[in-house]
Amino acid sequence: MKMRPLFFFMYVIILFILMLLWSKITPLIQIFSWIPNIAVLITFLAGHIIGRRFGILTGAYLGLIEDFMTGFFGFGLLSKTLTGFISGHFFRVNESYNQINFVYGLLTACFVNGMIYNGLYFYSEQEFSKTLAQFVAPETVYTLAMGFFIYYI
């Protein structure tokens, strides 16, 4: 897909505004300390609908924004770029659209993103199994539920 500069510029601005709004809305939908990861959801949808390259670019941009917002540089960029790559893997040009493909792809993308980001963030502080149970699994389930909600709207 050939990207037009104006489309890409508008896409970048819209994603930036969306991430700023999302950072203000998250306290309203937070359950304990778990929030759905909208960056993973947007990255997955971009890669799943448009293609692998676009998913990787979206993931890199959203990961960079997340790194600037959290002050924890590098891991957001790495995890969201890999999420974009995974979501592009579930993109098929001439196949019928399948809901199971969407569910497995989103589940895989959320889980890999959580393992990389939270696993590296809490690497020296606690055991990896505790990180999986405390942060990765609940965030994956919550993001998957939000993905179902967005998918069926």
In short:
This protein has 153 residues and is mostly helical. 77% of the residues lie in helices and 0% in strands.
Give your account of this protein's structure:
This protein is mainly alpha-helical and 153 residues long. Helix content is 77%, strand content 0%. It contains six helices and no strands. It has helices spanning 5-29, 38-49, 52-70, 75-89, 99-121, 128-151. Helix 1 packs across helix 3 and helix 2 packs across helix 5. It is globular and about 45 Å long.
Q: Main sheet? A: none
Which outline best applies? Answer: globular
The N- to C-terminal Cα distance equals 26 Å
Strand content: under 5%
What's the overall average pLDDT, rounded? Answer: 83
* Overall SS class: mainly alpha
Helix content: over 70%
| Rg, Cα atoms, Å | 15 Å
Output the helix-strand order: HHHHHH
How many DSSP helices?
6
Which runs of at least 5 residues are low in confidence (pLDDT < 50)?
none
Number of E-type strands: 0
List the helices and strands and how they pair.
Elements lengths: L4 H25 L8 H12 L2 H19 L4 H15 L9 H23 L6 H24 L2
Keywords:
153 residues, mainly alpha, 6 helices, globular
